């Protein structure tokens, strides 16, 4: 018995040591990541064996990478720190997106193309090195230009029929429009916001949902960009839940503004959508980060959101982060609508998102009853680019298994 206890104690101590090392590493990550992002492309494109660029080119290129390494963190701190200077945020965010794309493709394309050229015997070492450099720079430039256009355009509408086994026939065909992660921010997108709302209004929605991350900045600061949300039309209701970014920017101010614009903030509460004698419970919870925000009265409470509802009625739940679906499934929710992931926004960031969230984008099943729809988001966060992760406005048409067959 003593040996078993000692073994468990040793295992526990080893586990705690590993966690402590991981925490120490995470503290240094903000220092390590920028160095890797800027140093790796500099080495592969300028300094790697076989390059032999003229000295002025090597010096100028190295200086440019060094300037980016110093300037990007400074701009990010100035833009997103206490001062929150929009011009600095734009510079820092743009540099972050640019170097992420350059880092990714200098590694992937650089290594693969160099290998292919070597195997095929094209040129000597210097010729191959320069071909790789120009190919990487060209690919990065094209992806950044395309990614910027993708981020700035009005999202395409993604239409999807979703069958809910418990949905009554009277509610068959209910049209639910989902927008999320608009992230109004340093780049003024008031006109973009108005055009998004115009597109939403063409969809003739019964219910319009916004699942959070309205903006980066306070409601007072981003009011002009958010104001077009007041023009959104729905035959039944416009509902909203908080995202994690609201809790960086005075969340209660955003709740109050959305209420002022005619939206119903579903803060751990619900409303009933009734048609043809059938009822759909539309519920919402605060973001999962609300409890740690220190803001009084904020926190994700599914039991509170469903309090007083009939357990036989189907439930549509708004929750900003997909990871809430475990609680939703345990609570018998039929369909959860979420955002947060941005679909990865800039490939291959998708793979990092998957570590934290159970779904990246689209419709997925969790448990025996619960469906989760994860939007790739309507806007963008930070870097003004979307690469292989297009934005969307989503139209979900709810279907009942009891509906009459189409003639």
Automatic annotation (TrEMBL):
GO MF terms, alphabetically ordered: metal ion binding; UDP-2,3-diacylglucosamine hydrolase activity
Keyword Glycoprotein: no
Keywords linked to the UniProt accession: Hydrolase, Membrane, Metal-binding, Transmembrane, Transmembrane helix
Protein name per the record: Metallophosphoesterase
Transmembrane segments: 28-47, 53-75, 87-111, 131-149
Gene Ontology CC: membrane
Gene Ontology terms describing biological process: lipid A biosynthetic process
Ranges for domain Calcineurin-like phosphoesterase: 175-343
Lineage summary: Bacteria, Bacillati, Actinomycetota, Actinomycetes, Kitasatosporales
Pfam family, one: Metallophos
InterPro entries reported in the protein's UniProt record: Calcineurin-like_PHP, Metallo-depent_PP-like, Metallophosphoesterase_sf
Database matches in PANTHER family: PHOSPHODIESTERASE YAEI, TRANSMEMBRANE PROTEIN WITH METALLOPHOSPHOESTERASE DOMAIN-RELATED
Organism: Streptomyces albiflavescens
